[in-house]
Amino acid sequence: MPSFHVLIAGGGIGGLCLAQGLRRAGISCTVYESAPGIGRAGYRLHMNGAGGRALQQCLPDNLFELYMQTSRETPRREVMVVLDYQARELGARPHIGPPNDPSRPHTAVNRRTLRQIMGLGLEDIVRYDSTVTGFETDGEKVRVLLDDGTSETGDVLVGADGINSVVRRQLLPDVAVVDTGIRGLYSTAPLTDDLAARLPEALFDGFAVAAGPNGAMFAYGVYRPRRPVAEAVAELAPGAAVDPVDPYIMVNLGLPPGSPFAAEAPDLWHSSAETLHALMRTAVRGWDPALADLVEHVDASTIFPVSTRHLQPAEPWPAGRVTLLGDAIHAMPPSFGSGANTALRDAAALARALERAAHGDTPVAEAVAEYETEMRAEVFPILRASADPRGLDADFLPDDLPVSHT
């Protein structure tokens, strides 16, 4: 294979998966990640057949098996359940994506665990504390500019640097970031046997949401791995730096704009953990006792605020040596649980396209164009549906979205 080097801005879910896929194909790459290491942004991630198969294509066999064993045990139903504030089921909606694996369906993972697994074996190519500030192209090569004043050259630059992507802002400056106005709190509660026995059964299905009369909304997602994380790591990747994780249930409070409860909420970014926990308690006054008790069990140290934003779908653009994947080009609200899955899908597809280019089978711009055309066709409908205000309705499922069955 002729010399071919890929520059990747961003070491999140998509960037690490791409790096694993390129390494598996024998292609040189470097990942530039602005954070000092793998942080704790977010908790439970829904997985589907698209994301799972992308991991299978990109990861070494032992790491894919480690992902599978540390993914969530199979629920009775792999659906999104809509409840009222008294825990009565109002409806359920299947998850979207291609058919899931029948024997061990892809379900959910702990975000940090997945990132740690995907980082194994990449220690020599992931550069933390390294922020991309821009790029330059000359037709034959692309140069990435870094915040320390240095630059490095490669054959392709991939922006995997999230919704605030520096690469996208330079490549596609007209793509708008849309603030939905929805604010919220993410948190987790340790899932003890005693707590689990008191919770409504629907909370153990794929995902659950509930709304109260004051406009407060909660989303729930269980993470109980198929096998204890430390035990799986000891067998499949001995000595690997993957943190043990005990079972938990993610408890997320949503504050839709204009709702009475949102109007009374304090500044989420300048409040103490105790104040935020108190806000969550206030939100569930008068709710089903089990749902209210669940908020009592939230670990206040896990609470952090979030804003729900998304990108507008970009019009087709000329393909070249700079491209984008994941949230950098189609950041979406979590309505359909597809953000991580589409990023992984992009990474696997782009790895295949760049392998053709690296071998000289397809010109670089043509390989990138094929990837981008397919990505727009497959992922932009999911972006549009996720950004639709009806996204959390149990009966909202656009005809152009494939349904995932377990």
Number of helices: 13
What would CATH call the class? Alpha Beta
Oligomer: single chain
Largest sheet: 8 strands, mixed
Which structural class do the helices and strands define? alpha/beta
Beta strand %: 15-25%
- CATH H level, superfamily name: FAD/NAD(P)-binding domain
Q: How many E strands?
A: 18
Query: Termini, distance in Å?
Result: 40 Å
Rg (CA only): 21 Å
**Helix content range:** 25-40%
Unreliable stretches covering 5 or more consecutive residues: none
Domain FAD-binding: 312-377
GO molecular function, one term: FAD-dependent urate hydroxylase activity
Keywords: FAD, Flavoprotein, Monooxygenase, Oxidoreductase
InterPro entries: FAD-bd, FAD/NAD-bd_sf
What can you tell me about this protein's structure?
The chain is of the alpha/beta class and 406 residues long. The chain has a single domain (5-387), classed as 3-Layer(bba) Sandwich (FAD/NAD(P)-binding domain). Helices cover 33% and strands 23% of the residues. It is built from 13 helices and 18 strands. The chain has helices at 13-24, 49-58, 61-70, 111-119, 166-171, 193-198, 229-236, 260-264, 273-283, 289-296, 327-330, 339-358, 364-387, and strands at 5-9, 28-32, 44-46, 79-84, 89-94, 108-110, 126-127, 132-137, 142-146, 151-154, 156-159, 177-186, 188-190, 207-211, 217-223, 248-255, 304-311, 322-324. Strands 4, 5, 12, 13, 14, 15, 16 and 17 form an eight-stranded mixed sheet that branches. A hairpin with a 5-residue loop joins strand 14 and strand 15. The longest helix has 24 residues, at 364-387. 49% of the residues are buried. Its EC number is 1.14.13.113. It is an enzyme of class 1 (oxidoreductase).
